[in-house]
Each structure stands twice: as structure tokens, then as C-alpha cells.
From TrEMBL:
Residues 5-32 form a coiled coil. This is NET domain-containing protein. Residues 5-64 form the NET domain. Gene3D superfamilies: 1.20.1270.220. It comes from viral metagenome.
Amino acid sequence: MSDDYEERKKLLEDLKRLVKSEQEDIFRILKETHSEYSENSNGVFFDVSKISSESFEKIKKYMEFCIQNRQNFTLREEEERKAQEILGAT
């Protein structure tokens, strides 16, 4: 299988983990890049295999941003927890 297919498959799995505000940002990217999508009462749907390379790259970069933000948030929470332990111990 091609690398592009594998990357798009991974992106699809990553998209499932997004919170609502992040999903809305993906929708904005789709609209900005004039990608095809359908919308109904259950949400917005698009075919990851059919979006343009431009759309794919923008979504991929946004996903990397989301993942990095989550990692940074987790680190900050851990640092705060440690600081609270130290402050509570004195």
C-alpha cells in the first residue's frame, strides 16, 4: 500500500479522537479548501481518500498541532500536580 494511503488511514483514526471544537476547525479547513463534504443531523462527513493534497496537508498539520497541544497540556498538568505536592508538603 502507498504511503499516502497509510497516512490518510492514520488521519482518519486521529480524526475520531477530536473534540467538537477541533472537529469544527476541520470543517473550516474543508470549506476553505473547497473540499466535498455532506452534512446532516448527525454531522459533517467527507471521504478522506478523495480530499485534495492541499486539504490533506492542512488537516494533517492541524492534527499535529492538536496532538502537540494535548501533550503540552498533559505536561503542564503533571508539573502543576508536582508543584501542588511540594507546596502541600511544606
